[in-house]
Amino acid sequence: METHLLLLAALWLAYFTLHSLLASLACKRWLAARRPRLMPAYRLGYNALAVLLLLPPVALMLAWNGPLLWAWEGPWAWLAHLLALVALGLFAWSLTGYDGGEFSGLRQWRSRHAGIEDQATLHLSTLHRFVRHPWYLCALLLIWSRDMDAARLLSALLATGYFILGSRLEERKLIACHGEAYRRYRARVPGLLPWPGRRLDVRAARELEALARGDRERPAG
Predict the structure, then answer these.
(1) All domains of the chain in start order, with CATH
(2) Where are the alpha helices (DSSP H) in the chain?
């Protein structure tokens, strides 16, 4: 039991560490300086590797045969299933707010773009007006609305910790890319959980997008 859980924790920690390392600007700069021809395929390779490396910890988690620590029953089970459906629906809806070609890496590959920063400008979708990381929110709803055994609870705790830490690391890149616009956005909208009174209306979101476009188009220096 302990060996199984220790191995599972090691796999998750290795996955989260590698995922963040490969997403960092430092890693991209290192590769761009040594193998610039690989950069157009970087995003595609990053996404493919993220999916493949996710399989071992998920498989080990699902292979666990330990007793349940808790299970949602009665009205709570209906509520848990409803939250999971809401999370899936929000995730599907949020896809319309992303540039699919940019996110997947197909655009960079087709255009042979070798830069280390994303090409997309700041776009604040409806969900982004209420929370800065809607995908992380959806993932948290899915994770914590499931029945829990020891392996799933360990995975849920580690994933939650990673979403908190990873979102902060991700925002360093977003600030580097979008500058003052993202700083203002971060000050006005919560990160992972919606909060009453902290949201953007449509006009404020468009103003921040325009500010971000202006910063990107303005020549350095």
Answers:
(1) 2-217 (1.20.120)
(2) 2-23, 25-34, 42-63, 75-94, 100-104, 106-111, 134-144, 150-178, 180-188, 202-217
